[in-house]
Write a structure and sequence with these properties.
single chain, 153 residues, mainly beta, left handed beta-beta-3-solenoid, 3-stranded antiparallel β-sheet, elongated, Peptidase_S1B
Length: 153
């Protein structure tokens, strides 16, 4: 048994159909797209923490599922399949991002990068937390100097 078909407007302007499987009850029921693929799990929880832990998603459908779940916002860092992504107003961010006074580099898919990265012909070092380093840094036993912009000098 399914709920009536509903629609939500996606970021690309397309309407996405979805239904909730009610056989198991509302909370914990599967959420299906128009092709009857499971794209998430519905929850009745009120708090963002409960939704984050209760919703199982694949990364491609993340903005869609969050919009289905009572308008909860997709914001901040999300770990998806072992990689970190940063969302602002439901949108996955890419490129250089200043977050809480720290610079991070997110590749074209939005994945947070670490280690040595060549960006626009310049080398940068992003620590194990993804933060861009500046000043004098010892990396693998060798001292490197970085400008305030993060560029290796």
């Amino acid at each position: 048994m399914y709920t009536d078909k509903k629609q939500v407007l996606s970021d690309d302007g397309m309407f996405l159909d979805y239904q909730v499987d009610t056989l198991e009850g509302s909370s914990g029921s599967a959420v299906y797209d128009a092709s009857h693929r499971v794209v998430g799990v519905h929850t009745l929880g009120d708090g963002a923490n409960q939704i984050n832990s209760a919703v199982k998603l694949n990364e491609r459908n993340l903005p869609f599922i969050y919009s289905v779940l009572k308008g909860y916002s997709l914001e901040g860092w999300k770990k998806i399949n072992g990689s970190w992504y940063y969302y602002r107003q439901h949108d996955k961010q890419t490129g250089w991002q200043e977050i809480n006074d720290t610079w991070y580099y997110l590749d074209s898919s939005g994945k947070m990068l670490t280690d040595w990265q060549k960006v626009n012909g310049k080398w940068y070092y992003l620590n194990s937390n993804g933060a861009m380093v500046t000043g004098s840094q010892t990396i693998d036993g060798k001292v490197y100097n970085f400008a305030s912009s993060g560029e290796w000098i």
